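Lab notebook, bench 4. The sequencing result for the construct came back, and we need a structural model before the next group meeting so we can plan mutations. Quick request posted to the team channel:

Model the 3D structure of this chain.
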Amino acid sequence: MASILVIDDDHAVLATIRILLEREAHDVVVTDDGRKGLDLFRTSTFDLLIVDIFMPAMDGLETMSLVHRLRPTVPVIVISGHEIRLASKHAPDFLQMATKLGAVSSIQKPFRSRDLLAAVDNCLSGNLPPH
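Done. Here's the predicted structure in token form:
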């Protein structure tokens, strides 16, 4: 199946995603740091990137941007546990921002297994929403 890189600083999320995707026969590499993820991306071939938006050192938006410079055709799914709608109506919607920057799908944590698997299947099948 596909080779998928998952970057998230939450180890429980990494373990959950790894289990879900390996059950679907995907080859999954995980890391908890955007810089390490970028290094892995530079040295290996991946069919899909799943990245958390909010991480220390290098956030998911920066990681996604650098990945797109290296291989613009690799689809990216962004995930985030931060509330999309904050108290202020002027607060940024980071999942929507990531989609505008090139992510093909965005998922709010906590997510349902079926939602993540559907997003992965859509990315890998080329059944992507228009930007």
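The two ends are 26 Å apart (CA to CA).
Will bring this to the meeting.
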